[in-house]
Design goal:
alpha+beta; 434 Repressor (Amino-terminal Domain); single chain; about 350 residues; 3-stranded antiparallel beta sheet
Amino acid sequence: MIGKRIKKLRTTKELTQAELAKHLEVTTSSVGMYESGTRNPSYEVMVKLANFFNVSVDYLLGKSPFKNAQEEQYSIMIAAIKAVIHREDTHDLFWDTAMELLHSTSHIYTPNTLLYLSHILDKLKRPVTAVEYYDLCLFVSNGFKWPTDYQGPVIVKIKNEEIPILLDYWKIEKVTLDESTSRITYIETNSQISSECKGSNDSDKTTLNKSKITEPNHTDTYRLSQIPVVGVIRAGEPLFAQQNIISYEYLPEQLTKSGEYFGLKVTGDSMNLSRINDGDIVIVRQQPTVENGEIAVVLVNGEDATIKKFYCSESTVTLLPNSTNQDHQPRFIDLAETEVKVLGKVIKVIVNL
């Protein structure tokens, strides 16, 4: 197996045995013996071969059907999502999830990405490219797990369901994609953090580009970060007090590199005109200040945390509801008399259906 794979890799690169030997710092006859199976390369030479051909040592040894981690990732994810889409007992879950995400009122995707994903879904009965299947993985699934040594099912997580998919790993169609081939792009709306509010200091002053559209690094995109969701935040308690954590949400790691995040379950209708409704979950980036007009999670003088539009002057904070319910009125807080603590900025709403 080792000899056949070395020879195949060499001839694919159109190298002579002498050229490969020069790179490996061995003799030409040694390469000949590796390929014929009369001598096995040392571990040091195996590592050199793996690095030179961009393959894993396990692939050279015949322990893996995939040349490297990237080919393994793309091939397994694409094979698994194909099975989910076309399997009778999971077909409806896939489509329901895709439609829900596509028509959600809050998105982390650019409008062009949503149009592109809609086009893929529309043509699923016709040929779909490997890149398009991969992008459907990123869009619909929020987790993949596959076993070591290629024994057992792949687990595909969609919503809160874990779907086991049995695959013949040695017969999976091998897919090698360039990391830049995915057409999914994310919106990251950052703003200059206000430093006007009482308690801010120079170390908090950070300027970021507004409405920056980022091209994700897809080595990281398929990985997901676990975000704790709390039902309530009380003054004097740790933010993630264990008794307050009610569930977890998952976001692409690409979007959570820039800070710490948490989720908060919404209670009440004080922000329903901002499409934040009772039972929804807001995803919050932790930061001590926000810019005027942004939606923040705020603690006021020992009360439970509240979600409101935040405005701050030198001496006053205004917490502004945005609601069809006229019972919710603006709250004006004198900073000389009342402590106000910003816990973070709301960046995403997960709608409760």
